[in-house]
Amino acid sequence: MTTTRFLTGITPSGTPHLGNYAGMMRPAIAATREPGVENFYFLADYHALIKCQEPERVHRSTLEIAASWLAAGLDPERVTFYRQSDIPEIPELTWFLTCVTGKGLLNRAHAYKAAQDKNAEAGRESDDGVTAGLFMYPVLMAADILLFNAHRVPVGRDQIQHIEMARDMAASFNHLYGEHFTLPEAAIEDNVATLLGLDGRKMSKSYDNTIPLFCAPAQLRKLIGSIVTDSRAPGEPKETEGSALFQIYQAFATPEQTAAMRRAYADGIAWGDAKQMLFECIDREIAPMRARYDDLMAHPEKVEAALQIGAGRARAIARPFLQTLRAAVGLRPLSAAQPQAQGAQKAGKAALPAFKQYREADGKFYFKLVAADGRLLLQSTGFAAPRDAGQAIARLQKEAGALQALAPQLAPVAGVDAGEVSAALQALADTANT
Ligand code: TRP
Prior knowledge:
Blueprint: E1 4-10, H1 18-31, E2 37-43, H2 45-51, H3 55-71, E3 79-83, H4 89-98, H5 103-107, H6 110-121, H7 132-146, E4 152-154, H8 160-177, E5 185-187, H9 217-225, H10 244-252, H11 255-266, H12 271-298, H13 300-329, E6 354-359, E7 365-370, E8 376-380, H14 386-398, H15 402-405, E9 410-411, H16 418-433
Parallel strand pairs: 1-2, 2-3, 4-5
Antiparallel strand pairs: 6-7, 7-8, 8-9
The structure holds tryptophan (TRP).
EC number: 6.1.1.2
Enzyme class: ligase
Catalytic activity: tRNA(Trp) + L-tryptophan + ATP = L-tryptophyl-tRNA(Trp) + AMP + diphosphate + H(+)
């Protein structure tokens, strides 16, 4: 059976709130119970240093976030749960990737551009206050993902560009040094709740309108009491549409309970009563987790032990893989011979030509056909989309006459005649059919 490897990072900044829980933690933990998946969840504390230079906050937040995930039901037996800074292979891979990444690619990263735009608006020099850490953020994130050859990366929409960049970096590295990396894909969960906050806007730390996930019951009650409502009196029918109270209730209630609350709104429930119901509903789900959370916060060594188990498992993969990558780029003991060439020349396999797909600095997608001995046989021109390049490859491997038909998309290669190219395509077609 093939398993799909999911990997995602959680930046430890701040204290998790109900919105983080309903929108991210709860679905992510549920996903770890599905069959056929393998999960790597980690605390992205190197990333935290980009935004936060208060050591105590980074430290405290790492503990809070790790304890929150464990308390919310993350099972370290099922999930490889680790802390980024326990994996020294990540910064080493970051450097390898840095050296195959166009600076221009990083110039286009949204987070960096946003910082520049802000400076422009304020009339400041464009890189004012921008650290190289912020600029390099996408490379560090690509190293997180590629080190474990993750297939799918659950992230918010704001992170899709980073996954695309990770793919670009993987393709560049593979193109130069052989097929080492899986090209990851973003996994966007569209039907999870984005909770509204106390003031009716999206619940977010930056709006200061959150309800902390594990605050004490009295505090929870008080915060729920402060959720904005309109001024309709008890007995007057109320709107569920746009009601933060209703929307939060829905994220914690069963469908039946939600339907009952909808009727209660229509029947003119008093806001105070609706708030009481919301409190009970949330507290029912959260109370057992809060007890675990309080225990973990009182015993940080338990959290540390869980993370060390994760680090051990993660490094068991990362360490040997990084050895392979070091050798691939030419960092190896001087007494060692050349590494075995990749792919076709592996023992037991007949030497075959191979198609390689990659992206160039012009942003277009290319492929080439390389003979088993490494000589270039075919070279495409640039395609706008990876799919177009893929389809051309598929045609070349399947259709007789595709070579002529696709001639306009192919660039001539000196010293290679058409007969050799046809023979190579034929050899590929033959193995595909056996
Ligand atoms: N940048 C991500 C965020 O802010 C966190 C993150 C770091 C991450 N490394 C990652 C997410 C690798 C997915 C994969 O949300």
